[in-house]
């Protein structure tokens, strides 16, 4: 795995770019994956660029299916109805016969699918489902009228032993404002970091207002609601490393793969190390050796490093080196386990 790949691959939906990315590598690195997407879509190794809100792509024939009906329609063999959901561009690339062949083989042996996550963001409705056995998953992006912009089906891998091995430290949210979990969970469809041991339990967090992460010009960092928010220490500890001189990406969508984490703070909490990455250039207020307390402001959220929009990458690992240490599931002080699409409540009283 390249060091740069696990960072900042945020999805942005347009008819040309709406495809679910299960990870941050190319298709050869993903096992047992089938993707249905327009041929004009960006490759999975490239992060989509933010765009204006998604316009409804429309379909050439009516479908009675709603987004939440898609998995059952696959199980019931309603291939014509599924194909009718496709956006015009997607429909041009894939016919009903291809839908039948691909989905028919995939659902063999599956009794049912249950929702794993749902997120409304930037004019899209993004769903993921898991089979009852937890071994197969579906992820799909819909436009505002229920047109299907992109779909992925995947044989899921799981790591139950480490999934249940939580941090000793009880962490508080490292921010004061409410943020949206863009990536988070214990499967690769809800959290593309999951396939990488070094970042398996990481979170990517944005701020959404009225279901949009930005307002105004999407190429300007200042348009993003998360840009410039206070980032705080998630628990008492000692700062072990800092980076504070990486420029925020301009325009938004241009990414710095040479400095994947961008500006960051790493804190030692007694053998468990928190990483707060993609901070705003020059905003970090602590230095190595400093003691910090829970809720203390340590910097501002930015768009530095391999990041496609202003967001916070947060994780806890068993060592101070992000690329060699193992990620650990975070035990949150409130006992919750937020996943993709959840609103992550900050502490305004900090």
Automatic annotation (TrEMBL):
State the Pfam families in the record. Answer: Peptidase_M23 (PF01551)
Q: Write out the biased-composition intervals (Polar residues).
A: 57-66
Q: Name one GO molecular function term.
A: metalloendopeptidase activity
Q: Using the UniProt annotation, give all residue ranges assigned to the region (Disordered).
A: 29-66
InterPro entries, A to Z: Cell_wall_metabolism_enzyme, Dup_hybrid_motif, M23ase_b-sheet_dom
M23ase beta-sheet core domain ranges (all copies): 228-317
Q: Where is the composition biased (Low complexity)?
A: 41-53
What residue range is the signal peptide? 1-28
Keyword Signal included in the entry's annotation: yes
- Write out the entry's keywords from A to Z: Signal
**Protein name, as recorded:** Peptidase M23
């Amino acid at each position: 795995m390249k060091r740069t790949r696990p960072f900042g691959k945020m999805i942005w939906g347009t008819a040309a770019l709406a495809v679910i990315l299960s990870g941050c590598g190319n298709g050869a690195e993903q096992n047992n994956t089938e993707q249905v997407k327009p041929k004009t879509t960006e490759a999975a190794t490239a992060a989509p660029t933010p765009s204006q809100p998604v316009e409804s792509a429309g379909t050439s024939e009516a479908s009675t299916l709603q987004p939440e009906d898609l998995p059952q329609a696959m199980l019931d063999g309603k291939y014509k109805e599924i194909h009718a959901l496709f956006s015009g561009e997607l429909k041009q690339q894939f016919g009903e016969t291809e839908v039948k062949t691909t989905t028919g083989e995939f659902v063999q042996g599956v009794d049912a699918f249950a929702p794993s996550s749902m997120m409304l963001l930037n004019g899209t409705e993004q769903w993921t489902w898991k089979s009852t056995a937890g071994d197969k998953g579906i992820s799909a992006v819909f436009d505002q009228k229920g047109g299907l912009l992109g779909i992925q089906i995947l044989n899921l891998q799981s790591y139950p032993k480490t999934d249940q091995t939580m941090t000793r430290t009880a962490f508080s949210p490292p921010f004061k404002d409410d943020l949206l979990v863009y990536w988070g969970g214990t499967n690769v469809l809800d959290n593309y970091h999951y396939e990488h041991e070094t970042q398996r339990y990481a979170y990517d967090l944005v701020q959404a207002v009225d279901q949009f992460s930005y307002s105004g010009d999407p190429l300007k960092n200042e348009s993003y609601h998360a840009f410039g928010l206070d980032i705080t220490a998630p628990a008492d500890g000692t700062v072990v490393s800092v980076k504070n001189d990486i420029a925020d990406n301009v325009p938004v969508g241009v990414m710095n793969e040479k400095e994947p984490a961008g500006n960051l703070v790493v804190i030692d909490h007694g053998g468990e190390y928190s990483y707060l990455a993609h901070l705003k250039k020059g905003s970090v207020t602590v230095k190595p050796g400093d003691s910090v307390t829970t809720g203390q402001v340590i910097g501002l959220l930015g768009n530095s490093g391999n990041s496609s929009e202003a967001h916070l990458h947060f994780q806890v690992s068993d060592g101070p080196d992000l690329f060699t240490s193992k990620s650990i599931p975070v035990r949150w002080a409130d006992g919750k386990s937020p996943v993709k699409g959840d609103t992550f409540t900050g502490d305004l009283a900090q």
